[in-house]
Structure formats: structure tokens, C-alpha cells
Automatic annotation (TrEMBL):
Protein name: Putrescine oxidase
Coiled-coil residue spans: none
Alphabetic keyword roster: Oxidoreductase
InterPro entries reported for this sequence: Amino_oxidase, FAD/NAD-bd_sf, Flavin_amine_oxidase, Flavin_MAO
Residue intervals of the Amine oxidase domain: 23-431
Cofactor(s) this protein requires: FAD
Keyword Oxidoreductase assigned: yes
Length: 440
């Protein structure tokens, strides 16, 4: 939609305005659409989807997922959306009878989110409030090697180094990753942008692009929003479907700011660089590991905190490896030439997989470190000075305003599933509150 109708001082009236057209915002809008409410979505950038973003080659022979990519079958809401678009689930090639190893010793690693829960849960009788996670791990895990691997795993999974993470909040977050499977074993059969296009089509008349919200003012009848383009919109209720860190950069009127500011400012952005390499042959599936032939599914780089590698090939698809560079290392590489990033990635591949890893036929890089609207990593994380349960306050409506984002989800925070569920929950709870206010 063009911006010709978004002129200065124009005021429009809606039941609900949604700020942000990522998965959370679009999922909230789907609920409002089904309930027959009038709504508008204000999106700061030129496209919907947030960190769900697919890039197709010019000849359409190949595509890359620049952001979110992997799922499992317990993520029922995103699976439902994938199937509603006519796509299916495709199993990842490397998930069967393969292993995850460390970079230096090539030792076998069995880690998932439950290991963080178990580690923190085993430290009973201790308050974690305001303690950085790395201090807790240093105190209670004496074996340096084990500690390094766990810290690197955490930085890779959250894209934030453990020295910035609130330990109590981390314990809370991982307890909400409610999955009984150990991995993300599937991908969509086609680009995930198809899901975004589907949701965009449902809401196409409601989305206004390139309209970053600058100010939110509470009024007697709701809220007035002003964008950086000087457009003005009025609404009875408001869903802020952006990361808490992005919301913290918006100016709120004092009554709202006083309530929300401490919770929004409890979060810090992650940082991630994602690099996918395409090969003619899957040489990593027949490696000598401890004198046995093994298929390598993933690598955790204990010597490079926040860096991990995984086989991202689909069954019967191209042979691919994806390297994730998260946390401080992603920030360090943010402003160097792309050739330097490629060199760093290539060195990480070669040091574990040998010189075969150097002979890729194509690769794609995506970076999120500097995004003011999407956040720099998979999701924002509560820092060690933050309020450990800030998510609980932000996801519940207050004065007809509510926040929605993957960070706030009851289930699967930092995943696409969390974003979808958070958007749905925010819309339903807000409508309940609005209905209660009318009947009172």
C-alpha cells in the first residue's frame, strides 16, 4: 500500500491498532479479522514477516531462509499455518543416526534446552536475581570444558553471551520451551515467506508499510499514535507486536511509560549472523570420529562462544551446512567487510571438517545485528539487571494495551511458534478485556 493516504495530521479510528507486521502481529491480526474487528497494522519496514524472510535466487532454482527456518511437529500453530498455505513438512536430512560434536576434541555432545533447566534446577536454595548466568555457571560447574560447551550452547541458542543474561530469567525461559523432542527435525517444503504472504493476503488492506511508530499517547477514549512520517492514528486499543527492545525506543505518554518502562528496559537484544553453504557432496556424513565412521549433524564451538554449525539439508534436497555466529562474536563482526566474515566462517568449517569444507558452490549470509525493529538475534533476552519475569507483565493487557512477541510466549519463546502463539494470545486477551470494560 502506498503512503499517499498517510498524510500529516490525518486521524483514523480503529478498534485495535497493531504495531508490527511480524509473525506475532500478523497472527494477532488474523484473530481480529476472524472476530470482525476494525484494525490497522503499522509496519516500520517495507515488508512483513520480521525475522521470517526467504530469499530466492534470480533464476528461482534455489532459495535460502535468511531468518527462522527449523521446526518440530509439536509446534502446532506454525505447522498449521504451513499446511494452510499448501506446503508440507520435510524432514531434515541430518537428523537420523547422526551426532553433535565439539570443535576441538570431537567429543560427542548431547545438549538441549532441558540441560540448562536441569543445571539451574539442581542449584537449589539460591536466588539468581540480578546474577549473570556465567557467574552461576562458574560457581557451580567446576569442569572448565563442560562449562565452556554449555556457555557456547547457550550463546548459540539465545544469541546472547551468558555474562549478560539474568540467570533466573533464563531458567524461566527454558522452562517454557515445552517440547518433548530433542531437536528441530523439520522445515517447510517451500519458502517460509509463503506463510507470510498468506497472512499478508488476509490483512492486505490493513497493513501500512514504512510507518514506524514514534509516539504513543493515551487519550480518554484509547490511544493516539504518531509515526515518523507524521501520520496520526487513533484506536480504542493497542497491540505492540514488536520485540521489547524495539518498543523501548518508542516514546510513550507518562502514565504508560511509568507502568511499562522497567519491563521493556529489562531486555537486551541478541546478535546473529547466519551463513548457509551449498555443496555437491555431503562429506560430513562419513567422518572418522574416535576411530569410527559417523555422520555429523552439528558442531558446538566451545572455543568460539556462540558459534554452532548444523546440517541444514532437506531430505532429497541440496547438501547444505549452516553456520550460526551468535552473541559477542556477531557484534564483533558486524562492521567488517563481508570477505572477513566469509573467511572467519570458512576457517570454522575447515578446522572441524577439513579442506573439503572449503569447496562450496554457493553461499548466502544474513545479518540482524543492526536492525532497530526486528532485534539482532532470535529474540531479546532479559539482562542480569532486568526484572526476571518481565514477560508476565508485558503479555497481559493493561488499560487496553498489550505486548506480543516471541519473547513473551507461554510456550516456545524465541521460536516462530512462540511468536504465533503470543500474537494469538494478545489479541484474544485484549478482546476479553475490552468486552469486560463495555459491560462494567
Amino acid at each position: 500500500m502506498g503512503n499517499s493516504d498517510m498524510m500529516e495530521n490525518q486521524v483514523s479510528e480503529y478498534d485495535v491498532i497493531i504495531v508490527g507486521a511480524g509473525l506475532a502481529g500478523l497472527s494477532a491480526a488474523k484473530v481480529l479479522h476472524e472476530e470482525g474487528k476494525s484494525y490497522m497494522i503499522l509496519e516500520a519496514t517495507e515488508r512483513p514477516g520480521g525475522k521470517v524472510y526467504s530469499k530466492t535466487s534470480e533464476d528461482t532454482s534455489r532459495y535460502f531462509e535468511l531468518g527462522a527456518q527449523f521446526i518440530n511437529k509439536e509446534m502446532i500453530e506454525i505447522v498449521k499455518l504451513i499446511e494452510e498455505t499448501g506446503m508440507t513438512l520435510t524432514r531434515n536430512e541430518g537428523t537420523q543416526n547422526s551426532i553433535v560434536i565439539s570443535d576441538k576434541s570431537k567429543e560427542l555432545i548431547n545438549l538441549d534446552f532441558s540441560d540448562i533447566t536441569d543445571t539451574l534446577g539442581a542449584i537449589s536454595g539460591e536466588h539468581f536475581d540480578s546474577k549473570p548466568l556465567d557467574q552461576v555457571l562458574e560457581k557451580h560447574i567446576s569442569q572448565k570444558r563442560k562449562r565452556q560447551i554449555l556457555k557456547s550452547f547457550i550463546a548459540a541458542e539465545t544469541t546472547v553471551n551468558s555474562r549478560y543474561i539474568n540467570a533466573e530469567a533464563m531458567k524461566n525461559l527454558v522452562s517454557r520451551v515445552t517440547t518433548t523432542t530433542s531437536g528441530l527435525e523439520y522445515q517447510a517444503s517451500d519458502p517460509l515467506s509463503n506463510v507470510i504472504k498468506y497472512l499478508e493476503t488476509l490483512n492486505k488492506d490493513a497493513i501500512h508499510y514504512l510507518e514506524p511508530v514514534a509516539k504513543v499517547k493515551e487519550t480518554k477514549s484509547g490511544y493516539t499514535l504518531k509515526t515518523k512520517n507524521k501520520a496520526k492514528h487513533h484506536t480504542k486499543a493497542l497491540i505492540m507486536a514488536v520485540p521489547p527492545t524495539a518498543a523501548s525506543r518508542i516514546t510513550f505518554s507518562s502514565t504508560i511509560a511509568d507502568h511499562y518502562r522497567p519491563y521493556l528496559e529489562s531486555y537486551t537484544d541478541g546478535a546473529v549472523i547466519k551463513m548457509t553453504f551449498v555443496y555437491d557432496t555431503p562429506f560430513w556424513r562419513e567422518r572418522d570420529i574416535k576411530d569410527k565412521k559417523k555422520s555429523i549433524y552439528g558442531v558446538i564451538y566451545s572455543a568460539h562462544e556462540g558459534v554452532n554449525l548444523m546440517d541444514s539439508s532437506k531430505e532429497s534436497g541440496e547438501n547444505r551446512l549452516t553456520l550460526f555466529i551468535g552473541g559477542d562474536k556477531a557484534k564483533e563482526l558486524a562492521d567488517v567487510p563481508i570477505e572477513v566474515k566469509e573467511f572467519y566462517a570458512r576457517e570454522r568449517l575447515i578446522e572441524v571438517l577439513g579442506e573439503d569444507a572449503e569447496h562450496y558452490k554457493d553461499y548466502e549470509i544474513s545479518e540482524w545485528q543492526h536492525s532497530p525493529y526486528y532485534g539482532g538475534g532470535y529474540g531479546a533476552i532479559i539482562h542480569h539487571h532486568g526484572i526476571p519475569d518481565a514477560n508476565k507483565t508485558l503479555r497481559e493487557p493493561h488499560r487496553n494495551m498489550v505486548f506480543a512477541s516471541t519473547e513473551l510466549a507461554f510456550d516456545f519463546p524465541l521460536f516462530m511458534e512462540g511468536a504465533v502463539r503470543s500474537g494469538q494470545y494478545a489479541a484474544k486477551r485484549l478482546l476479553e478485556k475490552m468486552s469486560e470494560n463495555v459491560t462494567e
